[in-house]
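Work Package 3 committed the consortium to producing structural models of liganded targets before the mid-term review. Because experimental data for this complex are still outstanding, the team generated a predictive model from sequence and the ligand definition alone, so that downstream docking and mutagenesis planning could proceed in parallel. The input record is reproduced below exactly as it was submitted to the modelling pipeline, together with the SMILES string for flavin mononucleotide.
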Amino acid sequence: MDSLGIVNALYPMPTTLVGATVNGRPNFITIAHVGIMNHGKPQYISIGMAKMHFTNAGIRENKSFSVCIPSEDLMKETDYCGIVSGKKTDKAALFSLFYGDLKTAPMIEQCPVCMECRLERTVDFPTHDVFVGEIEATYAQEEVLAADGNIDISKVKPLLFDMSSKKYWSLGKAIGNCWNVGKQLKAGRI
Ligand SMILES: Cc1cc2nc3c(=O)[nH]c(=O)nc-3n(C[C@H](O)[C@H](O)[C@H](O)COP(=O)(O)O)c2cc1C
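The resulting structure, written out as tokens with the ligand in place, is given here.
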């Protein structure tokens, strides 16, 4: 094994568009540093955002944000939202918006999946805010649902972000069933 020093090797991550109301107006920021805090009720997710960004103040003020999952066909728009700042540009004009009950978490009609989050807590690092949100509601386009009503990730076609190559990647094919394929090893060892 070669030692690489300190490298975060956790990629790829799904690239998301995080929505917030900033100074009374909707804004979207591209965020790939997203996390799942738990699986259960309530459901908490996190987003890691450098303090310099325009969007942070809006999340702090309104205590809400959205996390939308763009498809591969929104690659240019998603990249653009990660290059320009809402300080000077109306990025929300790129999209058709909708709102849920929270009213201050703008979401994007063109994204196949969006989650509306109430800010649960903020972890305040010197350079970054980690916003932990409780998912209040999840919305999906009908076209990306499987027959059982669950989200079909192959239809969502998420943009996978990799820091090493600085490229967007697409999803491959499913290769096995979770909590299942391991049973083949378990069987021979009990
Ligand atoms: C693919 C991609 C992923 C990004 N992920 C993050 C991230 O996870 N955290 C972060 O603080 N900034 C991230 N950025 C940078 C912000 O999206 C970018 O600085 C944005 O323009 C800030 O927008 P705002 O000033 O309107 O808030 C990312 C940019 C790109 C292109």
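Reviewers should note the following from the model. The helical segments are 55-62, 75-81, 153-156, 183-189. These observations will guide the Year 2 experiments.
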